Amino acid sequence: MSPTPPSAPEAALLEAADLCAERGGRRLWRGLNLQLHAGDCRWLRGANGCGKTTLLRTLAGLRAPSAGRVTRGTLRYLGHAQALSAELSVSESLRFSASLQGLSASEPLRPALERLGLLREAARPVRQLSQGQRRRAALAALALPQPAGTVWLLDEPFDALDDDGVRRLQGLLDAHARSGGAVLFTSHQEAAALVVCRGDELRLSA
Ligand SMILES: Nc1ncnc2c1ncn2[C@@H]1O[C@H](COP(=O)(O)OP(=O)(O)OP(=O)(O)O)[C@@H](O)[C@H]1O
């Protein structure tokens, strides 16, 4: 009987090799290597100004690295300033996100709104929402159906959320990782972040 071949290591959903970034003539980090695998929910942490947002934007392809390369598949990036149109209602805004994600116009939005506790706000214009409600509205796009193995790059997703919002987001992150996706998120809220961490923290130094 021939020996069972060793199983191949699972391919990374996102991989960065030898990344280097500079801003304003200052080097933020160099030689940065990172892999995100199915099931990861990793906390990107570090002091203000050390380059976490810069790294997430570089991984998302929104910024070119000074050196190095990133290999990525399907991903969702959520910045800490939510890109919501103030004049759209919460539902319209989510419909717009769904269309950008290639979902059909008949895709039901209710489950995503419900997941973030937004059913009562569905018809309200974004401009009338509080900061925490806006955060929830932006996060609702993550609760839409998406391809297996999607990577989420989230900048300060816990910001402005109350305890209920934090728990809902933790549930969303946990479910995404368990279903074969991967998450890299920043947060200055240690208690909230520790609950969802699966995989090593990635710590940038200032
Ligand atoms: N437009 C810009 N021009 C030059 N330097 C910039 C610019 N934007 C940011 N920086 C610098 O880049 C560095 C990294 O910023 P970045 O926003 O990535 O940090 P961060 O770790 O996400 O910080 P925080 O925890 O405060 O959100 C900071 O030192 C900042 O001063």
TrEMBL record:
Domain ABC transporter: 14-204
Keyword terms of this UniProt record: ATP-binding, Cell membrane, Cytochrome c-type biogenesis, Membrane, Nucleotide-binding, Translocase, Transport
Domain of life the protein comes from: Bacteria
Signal peptide stretch: none
Keyword Cell membrane: yes
MF terms in GO: ATP binding
PROSITE patterns xref list: ABC_TRANSPORTER_1, ABC_TRANSPORTER_2
One Pfam entry name: ABC_tran
UniProt xrefs under PANTHER family: ABC TRANSPORTER I FAMILY MEMBER 1
NCBIfam families cross-referenced by the UniProt entry: ccmA
Protein's recorded name: Heme ABC exporter ATP-binding protein CcmA
Natural source organism: Pelomonas margarita
Organism lineage: Bacteria, Pseudomonadati, Pseudomonadota, Betaproteobacteria, Burkholderiales
Gene: ccmA
